[in-house]
Amino acid sequence: MMSAEMNAKNSGFSEKPPLTVLLCSPRGFCAGVVRAIDSVEQALRRYGPPVYVRHEIVHNRYVVESLKAKGAVFVEELDEIPDTKAPVIFSAHGVPKSVPEAASRRNLFALDATCPLVTKVHREAEIHHKRGREIVLVGHRNHPEVIGTMGQLPPGAVTLIETLADAAAFMPQDPAKLAYVTQTTLSVDDTAEIVALLKQRFPAIVDPHKEDICYATTNRQEAVKRVAPRVDAMIVVGALNSSNSQRLKEVAERAGCPTVALVARAGDIDWAKFGAIKSLGITAGASAPEVLVEEIIAAFAQRHAVNVETVSAAHEDVFFPLPRVLRENAAVE
């Protein structure tokens, strides 16, 4: 028995099977996420811990735990924060107007790390409202970005549309005074279908001044569409509560990839699903750091002879500056 094992080793039967990894580009952090994380880290450097953060700064447990270790304290609501002069940062997803108003009443030192592309949606909704238009928001109920956008306006000013069925059933007060905005992290294809139905039913509906689904969401989905049909399986690195990561998983499935998994870290991989594959696609949601992608590639490299190729759908060079008070040349308060 021992000699048979030795012969198998000597004849090469124990060598790792080859695996081609197609790495989606772009993937991982977008400019809004970088800005939000940098806001917390810069506040910690400038003012010292604690720095309070309302809601997860971005939807990624690794990022949140890393910031906790540096002195960030995460809360869901402002009433969990004691009276303090420490910075209080609002997450990248945006917040209802009631939140900064409450912070102001308590004289909290509030810093807004809302992604500028989410802020754009807020401003457009406000403009439509001032012009007397009823507003449709295409998005997912209970997502913090949707809560923040709807919270920019009085109750009843915004109607949430989640599905084609919602779009088919929606009855505006005045079809001639109607506009729509969208969550920034939606499926491009799903949203296009919903918008097409709304436009068919209400030809006068007003479009966003510029596409609301952000560049990062669009580019990451396009890269997945290019890779998914070419591989035996695909991994999306990201959190279960990350909207853009969930959409990447759905896009991969629709593009024809037979096995798709959304995993937070290498330790979450169900190896039974990935045992006999010869090709693997990997992408990462906009909140997932590259170190987690590298961790997953390393986990496959323990089991396979890995050859990594990059498939690029777009080049990204977007940069958003930090909130003014946190910029290096700002005066320390």
Written overview of the protein:
The chain has helices at 2-10, 31-47, 61-70, 98-105, 116-130, 144-150, 164-169, 188-201, 215-227, 243-254, 290-301, and strands spanning 18-25, 51-54, 72-75, 87-90, 109-112, 134-138, 158-161, 178-182, 233-237, 259-263, 279-284, 305-312. The strands form three sheets. The protein has a five-stranded parallel beta sheet with strand order 10-9-11-1-12, with helices on both faces. A four-stranded parallel beta sheet has the order 3-2-4-5, with helices on both faces. Residues 1-13 have low confidence and may be disordered. It is flat. α5 (116-130) runs parallel beside α6 (144-150) and α9 (215-227) runs parallel beside α10. The protein is 37% helix and 19% strand. With 333 residues, the protein is α/β, with parallel strands linked by helices. The chain folds into three domains: 14-29 and 215-312, Cobalt-precorrin-4 Transmethylase, domain 1; 31-114, Rossmann fold; 117-201, 4-hydroxy-3-methylbut-2-enyl diphosphate reductase, catalytic domain (Cobalt-precorrin-4 Transmethylase, domain 1), CATH 3.40.1010.20.
Features:
single chain; 333 residues; alpha/beta; Cobalt-precorrin-4 Transmethylase, domain 1; Rossmann fold; 3 domains; 5-stranded parallel beta sheet; 4-stranded parallel beta sheet; 12 strands; 19% strand; flat; disordered N terminus
